[in-house]
């Protein structure tokens, strides 16, 4: 039942993103073309690297966790990005032991051309997860899918609501759905502040702050 709900949620997110794209294209045939959004104001289609820290409130544990993340985005061609992520999440001490999770993944992200309101996208990829909890270690390959829309709020600020699904057959809890919203604000043409609030289906809440550097 949980897996069916997650899959329905992803399908709905994907259909919504595609519907927004189709609506934007239809508008261009019946109305004057919208003002062009500068291609360097968001993160989609950009070459950049980012570092961030997240405070994670764990829904099923009496302790919190710290997450350190690295992200690299490489445009491949018009409308396609390759995205590489590495995360390490470490719990607080519990009974003299610290649990941790390491995630390494690579996804292909496909997004629409720029519209005045933003860019919808879909993504799919592979990952590798390694966890340690209560002295026991486990690892698994992961299948990744997701969708979102990067909205252009101001010339420097974008907000991106998103949903992401991960399937890890090597773990007892094989399905993880995460949803939230990300923000990026360009201080200069090269440096930006980033933040995010996310929640997953295990009721873990994450609050992220970091920076992005564009090349």
Q: What does the average pLDDT come to?
A: 83
Poorly predicted runs: 1-39
Question: What is the helix content?
Answer: 10-25%
Count of alpha/pi helices: 1
Bulk shape: globular
Strand order of the largest sheet: 1-2-3-4-5-6-7-8-9-10
Largest sheet: 10 strands, antiparallel, barrel
Strand content: over 45%
Structural class designation: mainly beta
H/E series: HEEEEEEEEEE
Distance between the termini: 44 Å
Rg estimate, integer Å: 18 Å
**Total count of strands:** 10
Précis, in short:
This protein has one helix at residues 2-30, and strands at 48-57, 64-77, 80-91, 100-111, 118-133, 136-152, 157-167, 175-186, 191-200, 205-214. It is mostly beta strands and 215 residues long.
Could you characterize the architecture of this molecule?
- With 215 residues, the chain is mainly beta.
- Helix content is 13%, strand content 58%.
- It is built from one helix and ten strands.
